[in-house]
Design goal:
The chain contains 9 helices and no strands. It is mainly α. The chain has 2 domains: 16-86, no CATH class; 124-187, no CATH class. Helix 1 (2-41) packs across helix 2, helix 2 (43-56) crosses helix 3 and helix 7 (131-149) packs antiparallel against helix 9 (158-187). The longest helix has 40 residues, at 2-41. The chain is elongated, with a radius of gyration of 26 Å. The two termini are 17 Å apart.
């Protein structure tokens, strides 16, 4: 049951990531197309918007006009500037398929950790009585380690980040366990 759930959830997470990334890309492209249309059909209004964006950034006088002239002299740069500065949209890199695949694989690899001792117990029956406790311990260590590694991106305290991941992930696991425990009677029906 655990493996079927792991694969099903992993595939679901991957498909969700793929569709989310694809939808985000489609939205960005529609906004980009709209900006190109506005640049071509209402250049005065778009020039005014560029001028206001850079005025708010502190440009004035000749510097402001020079910046506006440079940006609006190239439609691609002009549109990307509008996308970034006006709409707050940063161009996405990578393909939605790979986003979905990496999400799915990461979920399945991480999700296998709690099952590891149960698989080992099949090969080494003497540890089967401790499989659950060892699974909980290994999962807790993994959650703390992953949270600690987050510091490579966030530059925050490694132990606070590890503890946060352990507590949030642990609470989620306890919640899932309790739901499973309460519903176990349904499986016997």
């Amino acid at each position: 049951m655990g493996f079927a759930n792991l694969v099903g959830d992993g595939l679901s997470m991957g498909v969700g990531s793929y569709l989310s990334t694809k939808s985000k890309r489609e939205y960005q492209q529609s906004e980009r197309d709209r900006e190109y249309w506005e640049v071509e059909n209402y250049p005065e209004g778009e020039i005014h918007e560029i001028r206001e964006i850079y005025r708010r950034k502190g440009f004035a006088g000749e510097d402001l006009e020079r910046a506006v002239k440079v940006i609006t002299s190239n439609k691609d740069i002009w549109v990307e500037t509008m996308m970034n500065e006006e709409l707050g949209i940063i161009k996405e890199e990578g393909h939605p398929f790979f986003s979905g695949l990496s999400t799915s694989l990461a979920f399945m690899v991480a999700g296998f950790i709690p099952l590891l001792f149960f698989v080992l117990a099949l090969a080494v029956p003497s540890i089967s009585g401790y499989a659950f406790q060892m699974s909980v311990l290994l999962t807790a260590i993994t959650l703390f380690a992953v949270g600690s590694l987050k510091v490579l991106v966030t530059q925050t305290s490694w132990w606070k980040s590890g503890l946060e991941m352990l507590l949030v992930g642990g609470a989620t696991a306890v919640g899932a366990y309790l739901v499973g425990y309460m519903l176990q009677g349904l499986a016997k029906i």
